[in-house]
Specification:
Blueprint: E1 9-11, E2 17-23, E3 26-33, H1 36-51, H2 61-71, H3 78-92, H4 102-114, H5 125-144, H6 178-187, H7 190-199, H8 206-211, E4 217-220, E5 225-230, E6 242-245, H9 248-257, E7 267-269, E8 280-282, H10 289-297, H11 307-318, H12 323-330, H13 343-354, H14 367-373
Helix pairs in contact: 2-3, 3-4, 3-5, 6-7, 6-10, 7-9, 12-13
């Protein structure tokens, strides 16, 4: 007996199964399923969900949020969206979407600012604004893209203007002093210390740092160092691939971990029993309990993983590196930025990064560094070295 077929389900050129079907005037589109049955299952689930909504009824926000999650299941930042939606749901989840506005969202904003459940601590304005941004996105889709069985939009009018709390509680980024760096590296576990040292010499974000793979490495034997070509899906903005250039310190870190894992550059040992070979596993994020405990012992309780990027940027500036080169290193957007790095540009970036391997290259210390330095015991300046 042949496999049942549905005219609206087909195998695409990417060898995945796709849905493109019109039912009672509504078009269902979906793709990327590994099998015919998975694609049919999605269509049946979507039809069941749509039929559960009475004709002419206004859906609730949790129904709208469920559709948003389903349609954005392949979104890279979906995990963050889900976390923020879980915070919002107790306040507006059961409300019809035409009743979601500033007044009904006040309870959510006040609870998040006070650290009340479901939050575990007071949230910064940035996190609250991100959550409200997802609410706005869902309401816009309900008004402009989603239609019921009668062909009418889920939300019959433009969504109301949602007022965002002022972004006035963001703390200033912290620049790690050189004595502070040495103390922090001593207090971190070896695998995190290596990652931190590499980050303090490249300025990588947490995600590409944890996902760094050996297959991305390009060893420039004639120049004596490596670069890593990071695919755009791991780059903020996802516009194009980016290049990480290793200075001498970053290269020494790379050589210290070479061979630990066949795929990932930075890993940790999951088994430390005597007589057994270590089993290495990739690291999801540097911002874990070990990082938090280490920075606390080092006297930098508020130092975030992202602050290492700020530290690199400030050190490059203090060393006199021009803004365009700093932008290339930190992957900042700028007009006219070339799509590919030339050999000369890579050498220029490498030379700039060599200026932040130790404090002896600092030409102009910032005021923030001076103020922070007064709070840290003085140490003899020495170059930073790779942690074994």
């Amino acid at each position: 007996m042949g496999r049942p077929t549905n005219p609206g389900i087909y195998r695409g050129k990417d060898d995945c199964w796709h849905v493109d079907k019109v039912v009672r005037g509504h078009r269902f589109r979906h793709g990327g399923e590994a099998s015919y049955s998975a694609a049919q299952g999605w269509l049946e689930q979507e039809l069941t969900r749509r039929q559960a909504l009475p004709r002419g009824a206004v859906p609730t926000f949790d129904q709208a949020a469920a559709r948003y999650v389903q349609e954005h299941e392949k979104k890279i930042s979906l995990e963050l969206d889900l976390h923020l939606l879980k915070l919002v749901m107790p306040f507006i989840g059961t409300l019809p979407i035409d009743q979601v506005h500033n007044e009904t969202l006040k309870g959510f904003v006040h609870a998040m600012q006070a650290g009340l459940p479901p939050a575990t601590k007071p949230l910064k304005a940035k996190s609250i604004r991100l959550a409200l941004g997802i609410v706005v996105r869902i309401l816009n889709l309900a008004a402009r893209a989603w239609r019921g069985e009668d062909g009418k939009p889920w939300l019959p009018h433009a969504p109301p203007l949602i007022q965002l709390p002022p972004h006035d509680d963001e703390r200033e980024p912290l620049q790690l002093t050189w004595p502070g760096q040495r103390t922090l590296l001593r207090e971190l576990p070896a695998h995190l210390a290596r990652m931190a040292l590499f980050d303090l010499n490249t300025g990588l974000r947490d995600e590409p740092l944890c996902r760094l793979r050996w297959e991305w490495e390009v060893r420039l034997a004639e120049l004596g160092f490596s670069v890593f070509v990071v695919p755009k899906r791991y780059v903020k903005g996802r516009k194009r691939d980016r290049v990480v250039v290793c200075n001498s310190v970053a290269q020494s870190v790379i050589e210290a971990v070479r061979g630990q894992h066949p795929d990932f550059v930075f890993v940790y040992s999951a088994i430390r029993k005597e007589g057994k070979a270590p089993r290495y596993r990739p690291i999801d994020t540097m911002h874990n309990t070990a990082w938090q405990n280490g920075r606390e012992r080092a006297g930098w309780p508020d130092y975030r993983v992202h602050d290492m990027r700020h530290t690199v940027g400030m050190r490059l500036r203090e060393a006199g590196v021009i803004e365009e080169t700093r932008d290339d290193i930190l992957w900042h957007k700028r007009p006219g930025m070339p799509a590919h790095y030339s050999v000369a540009q890579v050498q220029e970036i490498r030379a700039a990064l060599e200026l932040i391997t130790s404090e002896r290259h600092v030409n102009n210390v910032s005021l923030a560094s001076l103020i922070r330095g007064q709070r840290v015991p003085a140490e003899v300046p020495t170059p930073n070295k790779a942690v074994a």
